[in-house]
Amino acid sequence: MNDITRDIILDVTEKLIYRNGIAATGMDLLVKTAGVSRKSVYRYFANKDELVIAALQRRDERWMHWLRTEVERHATSGERLLGLFSALKTWFGSDDFRGCAFINTSGETGDPQDPVRLLAKAHKQKLFEYALELCRAHGTPEPERQAAYLLILMDGAITVALVMGDLTAADNAHAMARTLLQL
């Protein structure tokens, strides 16, 4: 066994959870799709919950890295703030867009202390902190408040794009952010 097997297990778990949800992603489906034995899965992860958390942690790291890379391509601080929504537009147009994995999975648990919900909260906190970083770099008045507004606009756009199938949601959120930030 090696890290490649672990990575395959995590990749497949993430894809299945993102497409089907946690409850609908059983171990039999995961093992079959990954092409590994159940024993291999349990060699790396004590149980399904541990596997789900590890897969979502990887998604968080990768997604935040992707977002930062997309946003940092813009030249000015104002363009970077609005670049949050340009990045979302790109994501919404991708073939595998199924909304926010963290909103989706946290909706599967009613317990605010569930590890999945806590991970979703940590992801949203990172997103808020990145928006705050961008607001501060731009010199936005009341950066904490503006970052909170931007987080709501981003999550609202993601939800509208998924639920309504409205790929203009990022453009609409972009326009609202421009007005909000007076850019």
Q: What's the overall average pLDDT, rounded? A: 95
Count of structural domains? 1
The CATH C-level name is Mainly Alpha
SSE pattern:
HHHHHHHHH
Tally of DSSP β-strands: 0
Which class of secondary structure composition applies to the elements? mainly alpha
β content, as a range?
under 5%
Known CATH architecture: Orthogonal Bundle
State the low-pLDDT regions, or none.
Answer: none
- Multimerization status: single chain
> What is the 3D form?
elongated
Q: What does the radius of gyration come to?
A: 18 Å
- Name of the CATH superfamily: Tetracycline Repressor, domain 2
The separation of the N and C termini measures: 53 Å
In words, what does this structure look like?
With 183 residues, the chain is mainly alpha-helical. It has one domain (3-181): Tetracycline Repressor, domain 2. The chain is 76% helix and 0% strand. It has helices at residues 3-20, 27-34, 38-44, 48-72, 77-92, 101-106, 115-138, 143-164, 169-181. Helix 7 packs across helix 8. The radius of gyration is 18 Å and the shape is elongated.
Summarize this structure briefly.
The chain has helices at residues 3-20, 27-34, 38-44, 48-72, 77-92, 101-106, 115-138, 143-164, 169-181. It is mainly alpha-helical and 183 residues long.
SSE blueprint and pairings:
Blueprint lengths: L2 H18 L6 H8 L3 H7 L3 H25 L4 H16 L8 H6 L8 H24 L4 H22 L4 H13 L2
